[in-house]
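Workshop exercise sheet. Pairs work together: one partner reads the sequence aloud, the other fills in the structure field after running the prediction. Swap roles for the next sheet.
Pair: D.N. / O.F.
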Amino acid sequence: MTTLKEKLKADLDAAIRGRDELRSSTLRLTITAITMEEVSGKSKRELSDDEVLKVIAKEAKKRREAAEAFAQGGRAESAERERAEGVLLDAYLPKQLSDEELDVIVAAAVEEAKAAGAEGPRAMGAVMKIVNPKVAGQADGGRVAASVKKLLAG
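Structure field:
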């Protein structure tokens, strides 16, 4: 079985051969981010597929934020490129949960937190500790937090 990092490198080679500039530059930047993560810290290490997914998710989030900033700044062409890079990276991430699926998981976590004695808006941290491992990589943290706040408030 090949690792996700090996798949990224193979896709990069294919993009270079196919002269796909957008895909090759996006994959180069992502592989560089993975390598930077591997060499950060006291010693070099090999990232697991889960850790590589976190790096890809972080890179995809950067693209979404940059696209938003470019769009607000009136640079539509740059915003469109960032969006395209984000879509390309999303293909490597697990399928994202729908709002309904996320609400079901959060509702169960709220009930679990209430059973443990945490209630009201102050239970946010307890609920997030329960929800985050369940939705890791399948929902953006901002979406999760918004869903938790909505359910705790009403």
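Discussion prompt: The mean pLDDT is 84. What would you look at next?
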